[in-house]
Amino acid sequence: MRFALHAALVAAFALVPLAAPWLGFVFTLVLAKGLAALGVAILLRAGLISIGHAAFYALGAYAVAAMSENAVSDLVLQLIAATLVSALAGALIGLFLVRYRGIFFAMLNLAVSMVFYTLLSKMYHLTGGTDGLRVDTPTVFGAVIDRDTLEPILLYGGLALVIVVGLAVHRYLKSPMGEALPAVETNEIRLEYLGIAVPRVLLSAYTLSAALAGLGGGVHALLVGHVVPDLAYWTTSGQLVLVAVLGGIGGVVGPFVGSFFLEIVRSFAVIYVADTWNLIVGAGLLVVIFFLPVGLYGLLDRAVRRSAK
């Protein structure tokens, strides 16, 4: 039944923008933020809350912008660069941060992201300062395309990419390294007694989570066509944690469900109740925390299982 649920979600995601084309932009943004939230969810499985992953999201976006400015216009190369640069930064920063737990880990991530935000804002000659950088429409395997063609490519290409990445992350979570993450939260000392190197487990998770955030940031940059320092601001990091918790951290699909909920609520609230969308999202988060410990995806999964009986 779970396969049928996933297939139905993918089909709905692919078909709805055909009936309402304006939702294509929103759905692509769902994919971009879902990728970053998936990275945050991986760390949450180990009990580590990162309030600074927007730094990697912004780093991926700025990597795409930098390549665009330097005439490297291929879409695939830009996304690969965004992922690799963020993964490298995650590996280097993670070497220092994975030694900490709890509030110290959260606050150090926040500090790193705010330092990065300040650098993006002040280094005008490189980053454009608070004005940001423009991202030109990329080429796709050498073919020149316009903006109207790019959006469907990002939506459906992004959906295919998310499926592939989701399967790879699912495989990672079922591997010994992935299975060790929940054990880090419950009994880290016992893992050490069993001969499992906890720092290596956490560093691999941190690097993977940074790579996912960078990939999401790259998609965001290509979609919006402009990057600004606010992508690295702490409120963006908070949104990624919110999305992961809303959707549920038990599997790969949860963060994308949470991202869908957040972006859809935001889009419709801007039209109908512009000043209350934070209230709606906050109320949704409270409901999830008190009544849905497995998140919105857990609610969908449970409903499908009951209907099958």
UniProtKB/TrEMBL annotation:
<keyword id="KW-1003">Cell membrane</keyword>
<protein>
    <submittedName>
        <fullName>Branched-chain amino acid transport system permease protein</fullName>
    </submittedName>
</protein>
<dbReference type="Pfam" id="PF02653">
    <property type="entry name" value="BPD_transp_2"/>
</dbReference>
<feature type="transmembrane region" description="Helical">
    <location>
        <begin position="42"/>
        <end position="64"/>
    </location>
</feature>
<feature type="transmembrane region" description="Helical">
    <location>
        <begin position="277"/>
        <end position="300"/>
    </location>
</feature>
<dbReference type="InterPro" id="IPR001851">
    <property type="entry name" value="ABC_transp_permease"/>
</dbReference>
<feature type="transmembrane region" description="Helical">
    <location>
        <begin position="203"/>
        <end position="228"/>
    </location>
</feature>
<feature type="transmembrane region" description="Helical">
    <location>
        <begin position="240"/>
        <end position="265"/>
    </location>
</feature>
<dbReference type="GO" id="GO:0005886">
    <property type="term" value="C:plasma membrane"/>
</dbReference>
<keyword id="KW-0472">Membrane</keyword>
<feature type="transmembrane region" description="Helical">
    <location>
        <begin position="153"/>
        <end position="173"/>
    </location>
</feature>
<dbReference type="InterPro" id="IPR043428">
    <property type="entry name" value="LivM-like"/>
</dbReference>
<keyword id="KW-0812">Transmembrane</keyword>
<feature type="transmembrane region" description="Helical">
    <location>
        <begin position="103"/>
        <end position="120"/>
    </location>
</feature>
<feature type="transmembrane region" description="Helical">
    <location>
        <begin position="76"/>
        <end position="97"/>
    </location>
</feature>
<dbReference type="GO" id="GO:0015658">
    <property type="term" value="F:branched-chain amino acid transmembrane transporter activity"/>
</dbReference>
<keyword id="KW-1133">Transmembrane helix</keyword>
